[in-house]
Amino acid sequence: ELNPAPSVIWTRPGETDTQARLDSIVKGWHRTGWLIDAEKRHHISPPSPALVELHDKFQAAGA
Fold it and tell me: What residue ranges do the domains of the chain occupy?
């Protein structure tokens, strides 16, 4: 059985150390704008408004 995370990375129940580490990594990607840059580098369109919203959210939170 798998637990979906808001970041769309799946982990198994009870893998709390893995979940916490991945959560930290993904929040960092959002905070730094790395995912927005990756989207541009790979010519993914249309651009995802969710990435901008999450970037602003985590940058403001200092996550």
Answer: 25-63
Which residue is associated with the tokens 């808001």?
Answer: 6
- For residues 4-30, average pLDDT: 86
Q: How far apart are CA 55 and CA 50, in angstroms?
A: 8
Residue type, 28: G
3-class DSSP state of 27:
helix
Q: Which residues, other chains included, contact 34 with Cβ-Cβ below 8 Å and sequence gap of 6+?
A: 28
The span from the CA of 33 to the CA of 57, in Å, is 11
pLDDT at 57 over 70: yes
